[in-house]
Amino acid sequence: MMKKKKWMAAIGITSALLLAGCGSEDAGSDSSTGGEKEKENTFKVGVTQIAEHPSLDAAFEGFKKALAEEGLEVEYDVQNAQGDANNNAPIAQNFVGDGVDLIFANSTPSAQSALNATKDIPIVFTSVTDAIGAELVKSMENTEGNVTGTLDNHPEAIPNTVKFIDEQFEGKTVGLVYNSGEQNSIAQIEMVKEAGKNTDLKFVEATVSTTAEVKQATESLVGKADVIYIITDNTVVSGLDSVILVANENDIPLFVGELDSVAKGGFAAYGFDYADIGYEAGVMAAQILKGEKQPSELPVQYPQNLKLVINKKAAEEMSIELKEEWDSLAEYLE
After folding, report:
1. Which InterPro entries is this protein grouped with (predicted)?
2. Minimal CA–CA distance to 215: which of 254, 238, 246, 174?
3. What residues have CB less than 8 Å from 316, skipping those under 6 apart?
């Protein structure tokens, strides 16, 4: 009788263990399915950026904010070319090989390399000055491809800057330092010269190919330029400290192309917040990832809310006397 009870108990224990084992497998299966579903609902976005710079970084933050507010789960693969255009192509090619859902290109060279790498994966760009001239899109309204985005060139920014220099400063020779290998820069220099046609201004140029050349190029303008104007050139802006140093030492007013460079020590700029154009690019990306729109259905957008900002400390460093009439035109950084 005792043997029979022991045998029955053994069967009970074995059955319980088998049931427990089945229960554990089901739970693991449920957990795995949940993980797979979560992974399926997560988008992979490749981020390619030409260099580290406050404006570009702000644009990326705005981009991420927009996607988060749209309720999308996103895994970002962030790659920085460290100011070397030769790094853009392999970055883009790696994104294609990885099969990302979308590429966010944060600069003109980044966007060009991304488009060269794929005609299938959606590309959303920002911090681009001339999307048509860079051959990214056919037109602002109809991009006719897998790419769209937002520009960092307000139509009135350069004309307003040139007009301000012409009307508010006695010196009429403007020094320009830029990378002649950047389509973004070539387009802006042409705009500067076009805006200067109806003024008394003359322009003297110094070109660079790397950030290491920026200081020497700027020094070459001393004695020639009454004012220096730095557009949103990625190479030069990466070496802006050198430009500011030369401007301060020689009391040359330094105009810049965006507000972050004003905060860094430039005298003045007509600009906007790069976080805003990044955010608008993020809204576009969300529409694409959700399947609501194709890139070709989203027109390229200009930045909004242009404003003049003057750095008072920089004005003092460059021996610029602030005029009372500027109070109604500009915002001041103390």
Report:
1. ABC_transpt-TYRBP-like, Peripla_BP_I
2. 246
3. none
* Backbone φ and ψ of 10, nearest 5°: -65, -40
d(CA 212, CA 171) in angstroms, rounded, equals: 28
Contacts of 272 (CB under 8 A, 6+ apart): 154, 258, 259, 303, 304, 305, 306, 307
pLDDT 10s digits, 185-210: 999 999 999 999 989 999 999 999 99
Reading across the β-sheet that carries 254-256, which strands appear in turn? Answer: 202-208, 173-179, 227-230, 254-256, 268-271, 307-311, 330-333
Question: From the CA atom positions of the chain, what is the Rg in Å?
Answer: 28
**Are the C-beta atoms of 98 and 75 separated by less than 8 Å?**
no
Closest C-alpha to 269, from 333, 321, 328: 333
Residues with Cβ within 8 Å of 28's Cβ and at least 6 positions away in sequence, in order, are none
Q: In the structure encoding, which two tokens stand for residue 235, read together? A: 């190479």
**Which residues 6+ apart lie within 8 Å of 318 measured at CB?**
247, 248, 251, 252, 253, 254, 267
